[in-house]
């Protein structure tokens, strides 16, 4: 039994899908299935009942899951405990924050020449867990999170982009309204994978007499921009740095949809001068 197998096991339990768990763990579906099968062989039990439509945990899974999470948490604690002492910060984010993060890190290092600041790529849930476990000092997220022991500090507000195929009937207009967009299907990932975007849409349409028409959810192994090319009648919402050549971006009448970007820290974190400098640099970049 290996720790990575426990990590894959937890991902499958939480996603109830081998394909979504594979995407979350940045490996292929066949690889995660193979590792779960090895774990089942090592433990001598079946952990999931698989079918073409569902993944159902067994009784053994219910007993193993809290222990697996405890083991992974202990691993993070061990890594945090043996990290070299000194001025060191670990910042967890995803690639969409890379440009702004690296610029802020460069500024913080200039102000504190002896500081070591790491930029580590993690998906959303792993970012939060890394901060909670002490493996990372802070994480960047869009939106917020409510979890005991964590503090959320808003850094900046990010504009969202309305995007369509260049063949869309509304493409090329100076601006569009939500009511006009409401006549066309909206393509988004399933709500459990993009709660923030779905909440933004609900809030934006709350005062309108109509609601958006949702098209088929975007599968985990597809991109929103590719779906727009396949569905030239549809529209979607992208983060500002997600724009792609061949996709039209539309200006929303009344101003863009916006989301807060926040830093997540442990409530007990000592706010060192390096950390304060980095947070200030992130907020002003």
TrEMBL record:
SUPFAM superfamilies for the chain: Periplasmic binding protein-like II (SSF53850), Winged helix' DNA-binding domain (SSF46785)
Top-level taxon of origin: Bacteria
InterPro entries found in the cross-reference section: LysR_HTH_N, LysR_subst-bd, WH-like_DNA-bd_sf, WH_DNA-bd_sf
Entries under CDD domains matching the protein: PBP2_LTTR_aromatics_like
Ranges for domain HTH lysR-type: 1-58
Family under the similarity heading: Belongs to the LysR transcriptional regulatory family.
Protein name, as recorded: LysR family transcriptional regulator
């Amino acid at each position: 039994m290996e720790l990575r197998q426990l990590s894959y096991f937890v991902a499958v339990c939480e996603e109830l899908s081998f394909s979504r768990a594979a995407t979350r763990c940045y490996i292929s579906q066949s690889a995660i299935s193979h590792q779960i099968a090895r774990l089942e062989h090592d433990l001598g039990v079946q952990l999931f009942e698989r079918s073409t439509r569902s993944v159902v945990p067994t009784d053994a899974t219910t007993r193993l899951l809290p222990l697996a999470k405890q083991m992974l948490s202990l691993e993070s604690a061990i890594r945090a405990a043996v990290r070299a002492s000194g001025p060191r910060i670990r910042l967890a984010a995803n690639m969409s924050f890379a440009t702004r993060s690296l610029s802020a890190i460069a500024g913080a290092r200039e102000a504190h020449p002896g500081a070591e600041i790491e930029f580590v790529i993690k998906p959303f849930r792993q970012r939060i867990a890394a901060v909670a476990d002490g493996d990372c000092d802070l994480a960047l997220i869009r939106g917020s999170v409510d979890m005991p022991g964590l503090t959320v500090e808003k850094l900046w507000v990010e504009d969202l982009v309305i995007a369509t195929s260049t063949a869309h009937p509304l493409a090329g207009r100076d601006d569009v309204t939500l009511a006009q967009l409401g006549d066309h299907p909206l393509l988004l990932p399933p709500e459990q994978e993009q709660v923030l975007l779905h909440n933004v849409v609900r809030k934006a349409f709350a005062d309108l007499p109509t609601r958006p028409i949702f098209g088929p959810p975007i599968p985990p192994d597809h991109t929103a921009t590719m779906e727009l090319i396949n569905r030239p009648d549809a529209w979607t919402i992208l983060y500002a740095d997600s724009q792609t050549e061949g996709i039209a971006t539309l200006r929303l009448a009344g101003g863009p949809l916006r989301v807060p970007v926040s830093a997540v820290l442990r409530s007990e974190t000592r706010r060192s001068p390096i950390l304060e400098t980095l947070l200030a640099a992130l907020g002003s970049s």
